Amino acid sequence: MSDASDVTKAAVVTPIRVAIAVCLIAPFVAMLWVGSYAKTDPVFIGIPFFYWYQMLWVLLSTALTMTAYQLWQRDQRTRKAEAATSTDGGAQQ
C-alpha cells in the first residue's frame, strides 16, 4: 500500500533540519551543563558570571528560536514547491 505520495510525506533528514535541531537543542545543553558556568568570575558590570551568563542565554535562545522558525518556514516552502512540481511533472509525461 505504499505509493509515491507516502514516500514524499516521510520525514527526511536534511541539513536545514539538522540546523533547526541544533538551534533548538543548544540552549538546553548550555543551561543543563551547570558546571560550565557555576562560578563568579569574570564579573561583568558588577554582575557575577553565573547570573549574566544565564541572562545572555535568554537573548541567545530567542535569536536561535527565531532562526529555527525561519529555517522551518523555508523548508516547508521548499517541500511544497517540490511537491507541486513533482505532481505537475508527472501529469505532463
UniProtKB/TrEMBL annotation:
<feature type="transmembrane region" description="Helical">
    <location>
        <begin position="50"/>
        <end position="72"/>
    </location>
</feature>
<protein>
    <submittedName>
        <fullName>DUF3311 domain-containing protein</fullName>
    </submittedName>
</protein>
<dbReference type="InterPro" id="IPR021741">
    <property type="entry name" value="DUF3311"/>
</dbReference>
<keyword id="KW-0472">Membrane</keyword>
<dbReference type="Pfam" id="PF11755">
    <property type="entry name" value="DUF3311"/>
</dbReference>
<keyword id="KW-0812">Transmembrane</keyword>
<feature type="transmembrane region" description="Helical">
    <location>
        <begin position="18"/>
        <end position="38"/>
    </location>
</feature>
<keyword id="KW-1133">Transmembrane helix</keyword>
